[in-house]
Design goal:
Layout: H1 5-28, H2 35-42, H3 46-52, H4 56-60, H5 64-76, H6 84-98, H7 109-117, H8 120-145, H9 153-177, H10 182-202
Helix pairs in contact: 1-2, 5-8, 6-10, 8-9, 9-10
Protein name: AcrR family transcriptional regulator
Organism: Nonomuraea endophytica
GO molecular function, one term: transcription cis-regulatory region binding
Length: about 210
Amino acid sequence: MEEGLRERKKRETRLRIADMAMGLFMMRGFDNVTVAEVARAADVSVNTVFNYFRTKEDLFMDRWDEVEDLPSKVVRERRPGESVLAAFRRDFLDALDTGDWRYGLNEGAEEFGKLVGDSPSLMARMRELEYATDVRLARTVAEDVEADPDDLSPRLVAAQIMSVTRLLSRLAVRRKWAGESWQEILADVRTQAEAAFDLLENGIGRYAVRS
């Protein structure tokens, strides 16, 4: 159905508030910006801001629902004959090659990471988001394979895959902070990603056997 005028205006207002907020956060840091300043920049009242965003942190995490669902979407949209792990390998490498934001491998990801790292409240919200994402992914996998409620496999699969993608993303950001170019970083991240997914594919049973 076509979006009604009222709904479109509400969506545009929400987007404008979020965009103005992010611009201020990027310039001055999350903890140095007030909701009142965001309201003035967006030309709305403070009450209007809180009508759209429950907390100041929600202004920063305005794409929470989309981000939380992204890994589950990879599972739902995988190709016939493709495993969950293979789908994530393909999706991660595609994001790497295209510079897409969904794994934090895009230009500007280091600035986003610094904003989060400099704010204890954002760090806490990011941990909440990661937990919610893992729970949703595990549930999606479990539903897909019709797993028994006591079967830990979907949760183990989700935890390992998300751990790998986050470690790779954080590696890229740390190296960007150190002054390396994205071109240098992403070439090495691709190599390490292939090795990491190979490790998951083959299992870790023979890893680090003491000689």
